[in-house]
């Protein structure tokens, strides 16, 4: 897909940059906290996510870009992604352990995120599946579990995000589809588990 329109390229870049996986997850966590917790409860739940997941991952990517280990903040190189996936998977496992110690319950959202990342790491040995597409589809499922309309909107947004990744030549159509398939599988499992376990 060869797009030469400066306007389309600029819009694609804005969408792709804004809806990166970390930002999309933060938006979901804010919305979930707003719906389900008081400010005090939300801060107790969100601060560990911020300190153990979001900030360390952002710092890891930034430092590796600065050192030249990663080509860019998207970590577009397939070989470079191996260390990124390992770091994020370890971070999610650490968070799950700390969260279980503090609350004596499993955070199913983060557990399924961890499983999604493990599957993405496995797929990365064969194809550079789109993290933007994959994690945004998973975020769509998270939203769908508490507000189906937002979930559907976010799924459609994920399709647009996938298209922007192709337009910007960060991924091929096959890589976007691969990320989508993995995410849809994990998302369906999550939605079934949410219905069976949480409700």
UniProtKB/TrEMBL annotation:
Gene3D superfamilies per UniProt: Phosphatidic acid phosphatase type 2/haloperoxidase (1.20.144.10)
Pfam families on file: PAP2 (PF01569)
InterPro entries: PAP2/HPO, PAP2/HPO_sf
SUPFAM superfamilies per UniProt: Acid phosphatase/Vanadium-dependent haloperoxidase (SSF48317)
Keyword terms: Membrane, Transmembrane, Transmembrane helix
Residue ranges of domain Phosphatidic acid phosphatase type 2/haloperoxidase in the record: 129-195
Membrane-spanning intervals of the chain: 14-34, 46-63, 84-102, 108-127, 139-164, 176-198
Protein known as: Phosphatidic acid phosphatase type 2/haloperoxidase domain-containing protein
